[in-house]
Specification:
There is one protein chain. By secondary structure, this protein is of the alpha+beta class. The chain folds into two domains: about 120 residues, Beta Polymerase, domain 2, CATH 3.30.460.10; about 140 residues, Four Helix Bundle (Hemerythrin (Met), subunit A). Helices cover about 55% and strands about 10% of the residues. It is built from twelve helices and six strands. It starts with 19 loop residues before the first helix and ends with a helix. The N terminus is likely disordered.
Length: about 300
């Protein structure tokens, strides 16, 4: 059993609010990460840290839907770590396969401390609300700089204007190419519409932009902000999995691979889904921006 020191000033280290089986899972996850990565710190954040996690199943039109909140984990690596953040992320997520999905964000200590000093509210919230699962004791987190509500609101509005509105333009482009019969160009534009819409939600809620074009990961990042948003692509049947896979692969395959094939009907279905995604994401972001004054 790996010794997991957890002393970190001002940060919570208790998992007592979680059921015993979740505490055990998180301890195992921390052990796996320590062995694979040798990080500086491992911090649980999101719904499992704040006690707002959800697990439930429901049936609609004869189809079973399941919603399970992920374990959201920030892994802080050493200064000068040679491996890329996404490489470490893949190692961790491929090693930690439980009924509860594990979503990780990986950054080195220099980057995290820079964000804390600048008042980047994704990281300041984690330092304030997160639970330290592991601390090597070799370094420490910088003192966070709080943003005023007015500053945070301006930043969130800028993110919405840049990313959500751009996503709407790409959806408009996808419709044009669908009507023009250029299906590959249409689905690539649709991928961009989805990517920018997901990014808009993450940025408005956290001020953080994941370094990925992977829609599966972006979908998981937005899951903790809206169950309805996560349900746009349920992936609970083989047909649903194929549909989302077509969209995920469009970023590369639709542009560069001759064997990538999508029908007009499939593109039409995906256009409807991305319209639904934006119909949910837009009001969600606007509501969040409006609420910042009261935070």
């Amino acid at each position: 059993m790996i010794d997991l020191p957890t002393k970190q000033a001002l940060m919570n280290t208790s998992l007592a609010h979680l059921p015993a089986y979740k505490q055990e899972q998180l301890q195992k996850i921390a052990s796996i990460i320590v062995e694979a990565v040798q990080p500086e710190m491992i911090i649980l954040f999101g719904s499992h840290a704040t006690g707002r996690w959800v697990e439930h199943k429901y049936v609609e039109d004869g189809i079973v839907y399941e919603y399970i909140s992920d374990y959201d984990i920030l892994v802080i690596t050493k200064s000068g770590e040679n491996r890329k953040d996404y490489e470490i992320q893949d190692v961790i997520e491929n090693s930690c396969r439980y009924q509860t999905p594990v979503t990780t964000i990986v950054h080195d200590i220099d980057f995290v401390n820079k964000m804390l000093r600048e008042g980047q509210y994704f990281f300041t919230d984690i330092e304030q609300e997160g639970i330290m699962l592991y601390n090597s004791g070799r370094t420490s987190l910088a003192e966070r700089k709080p943003l005023s509500p007015a500053e945070a609101k301006v930043i969130a509005q800028d993110y919405y204007d840049q990313w959500y509105l751009s996503g709407q333009r790409f959806l408009k482009g996808a419709r044009f190419y669908w009507q023009d019969g250029d299906l590959k160009e249409g689905v690539f534009n649709l991928h961009q519409a989805a990517e920018r819409t997901y990014n808009a939600v993450v940025l408005v809620f956290t001020g953080y932009k994941p370094k990925t074009h992977n829609l599966d990961k972006l979908k998981r990042y937005t899951k903790r902000f809206s169950e309805e948003l996560a349900g746009v692509f349920p992936e609970n049947t083989a047909e649903e999995e194929r549909l989302f896979d077509l969209l995920k692969r469009a970023y590369i395959d639709a542009r560069y691979k001759k064997d990538y094939v999508i029908t007009a009907e499939q593109l039409s279905l995906l256009i409807e889904r991305i319209q639904k995604l934006q119909d949910i994401a837009g009001p969600l972001c606007i509501e969040m921006i409006a609420s910042i004054d009261s935070i």
